[in-house]
Each structure stands twice: as C-alpha cells, then as structure tokens.
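so my prof wants the structure for this chain in the tokens format not the other one, which i didnt know existed until like an hour ago. anyway here's the sequence
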Amino acid sequence: MALDKYQIAQRIARELKDGFYVNLGIGIPTLVANYIPEGIDVVLQSENGLLGMGPFPWEGEEDADLINAGKQTITTMPGSAFFDSAMSFGMIRSGKIDLTVLGAMEVSDQGDIANWKIPGKMVKGMGGAMDLVASAKNIIVAMMHTNPKGESKLLRECTLPLTGRRCIKKVVTELAMLEITSLGFELRERAPGVSVDEIQTKTAGRLLIPSEVPEMQF
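here's what i got, hopefully its the right format
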C-alpha cells in the first residue's frame, strides 16, 4: 500500500540525528516536525526567522503571529529565538544547517532537483530553496513518485528549471526510499505491500535494485 503524506514525513523523521539543526521546506516536509523520535533533540529552523520551531498547534490553539515560511501556524519550543531574514539566511549560507527536507517537482538520478518553477506559470519567486540546496550539509526530498498523469517524477534528467545540481542525497516517496549514487537511484526500502516491479515501472531514471529490498519500518 502506498504511503500517505504523513507516513512519508514519519519515515523521513527517522533520518534525524541528535543535535541536528534542520530546515523543513514547504508542503510534506513541514509535517516532519510532528514525528521527531523520542530521545532525539533537534532544532528546527524556519527561513522567515525562527530557530526552535515546534510541532503544529492543535485546532483552537493557533497563534496567528507564529507562522513558518509556508504561512502555516506553528508552535515554538523552550529557548526558541526570533530574528530577521538576513540572519536566517546567514545561518543557511554559512553551512549551519545539518539537514534540509524539501519538496520537489522533479529529481534526477544524478541528484539534481527542480522544485521552484513550471514554465508559463506565475510564481512569486524562488524563496529560500536555492540557498538551501547550495548550503545544507544533507538534503532529503519528500515527493510523490509520479505526477497526476502517472508520469515518473524521478528522471534521468530534469525537464523543469533546476534549483540545484547534484545536491540531493535521498528521496522518500509514497512508494520507496531511494539513495542517490553515482550510478543512479538505489532502491533502499519499499513501502509496505509495494512491489519492486511497481517501483521500477514508475521510475524513469536509472534504478539500482539490490537483491533484498526491505519494507519500510515505522
């Protein structure tokens, strides 16, 4: 059975390490804040100027003055700090972020990412994505394996304008967790009940398939 967006976030949360400073991009990545494993102390950074972001608030407990970069209401953790965008991007550009989790429209088997623009469609701007892919020590992508037409979004070469080149380390989709290697996507885990054949059929880029591919654990 394919994962939903919450399970994708839950699987990515298992990649967090104690002491990490983590930036969560807009969309599925923001959900990772709700699944930080017990015993793991991480600091979540939001590029609009917050260090120490907490999980989403319960309904009825929202504070309209506390939002993330995607304009969603959030909570803060004890010791959190607020600052301007210049300081926020100074943290990012100086390599202080250990892990960035981003959404994507396309990822290539070389680790390229396209996540900011579809030609012909109006966009407000790139936001912080280019700074994040250029500066973060580790980048994981949370995305759907195929587009609404059923076409693969894991490609040999991206067709959309790139955000960054050869910067992605892992991809987690509703079907699988894959690592980027010099030889393409390496299938590391599959969603429960999803076959290797289905993943192979829906992956347009080069796909390396080990002899044993375990199901994801949550």
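also thought this was worth mentioning. The radius of gyration is 17 Å.
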